[in-house]
């Protein structure tokens, strides 16, 4: 059995400001750093063989906190980065809705059917992320690995594993530093934990 511990990055300033960040490289806040440290502490007793992250600094920094507990490097996988929000990056929901109200009206009900101006579709994210994850699972038979990614990307992975249509991806909650656990048995994946945030208990 190969175990994949799939973690969302810690809080960023744009998370606080409710801005769409996508491929923009936004650093963790002080709280985000603390969240990453708490996630790392909760995984300190796991027998982790490798740590991977997207090539965006918010994911890499979160992964580093985890990797440091195991004296491991962090390998970057660009295919694990967040969805490219194109012209929406750096804008709030209200600003986006003012200019692209027809698309925004469908973002949370039919995300699989929209095309983000200058960006990606959720189908494209799902394809690149699941292919990358499949390669990692094959590379680490009978091992435990950590993969740090992003809310939208992780949701598409979970939709793929659970055979859920992408139009339901927003029904899956992913808080900052949420821990998800996938167990692979002969290419059959089971979800044993989703949006685990027990490590954040007591953090304000």
Distance between the termini: 36 Å
**Mean pLDDT score:** 96
CATH arch. level architecture: 3-Layer(aba) Sandwich
Compute the number of strand runs: 6
H/E topology pattern: EHHEHEHHHEHEE
Please give the order of strands in the largest beta sheet.
3-2-4-1-5-6
Briefly note the structural class of the backbone.
alpha/beta
CATH topology category name: Rossmann fold
The major sheet is characterized as: 6 strands, mixed
Number of domains: 1
Summarize the structure.
The protein is α/β, with parallel strands linked by helices. The protein is 36% helix and 19% strand.
List the topology elements:
Blueprint: E1 2-8, H1 13-16, H2 30-42, E2 48-53, H3 57-68, E3 74-76, H4 93-99, H5 101-107, H6 122-139, E4 144-149, H7 151-162, E5 179-185, E6 188-196
Parallel strand pairs: 1-4, 2-3, 2-4
Antiparallel strand pairs: 1-5, 5-6
Helix pairs in contact: 2-3, 4-5, 6-7
């Amino acid at each position: 059995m190969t175990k994949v511990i799939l973690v969302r990055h810690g809080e960023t300033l744009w998370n606080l400001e409710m801005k769409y960040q996508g491929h923009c490289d936004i650093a963790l806040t002080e709280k985000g750093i603390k969240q990453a440290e708490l996630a790392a502490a909760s995984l300190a007793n796991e027998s982790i063989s490798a740590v991977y992250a997207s090539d965006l600094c918010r994911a890499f920094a979160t992964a580093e906190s985890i990797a440091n507990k195991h004296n491991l490097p962090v390998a970057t996988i660009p295919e694990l980065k967040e969805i490219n929000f194109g012209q929406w990056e750096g804008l709030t929901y209200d600003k986006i809705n003012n200019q692209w109200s027809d698309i925004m009206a469908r973002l949370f009900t039919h995300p699989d059917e929209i095309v983000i101006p200058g960006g990606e579709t959720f189908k494209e994210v799902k394809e690149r992320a699941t292919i990358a994850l499949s390669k990692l699972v094959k590379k680490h038979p009978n091992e435990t690995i950590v993969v740090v990614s992003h809310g939208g990307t992780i949701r598409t992975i979970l939709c793929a594993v659970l055979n859920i249509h992408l139009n339901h991806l927003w029904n899956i909650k992913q808080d900052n530093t949420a821990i998800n656990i996938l167990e692979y048995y002969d290419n059959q994946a089971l979800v044993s934990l989703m949006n685990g945030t027990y490590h954040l208990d007591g953090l304000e």
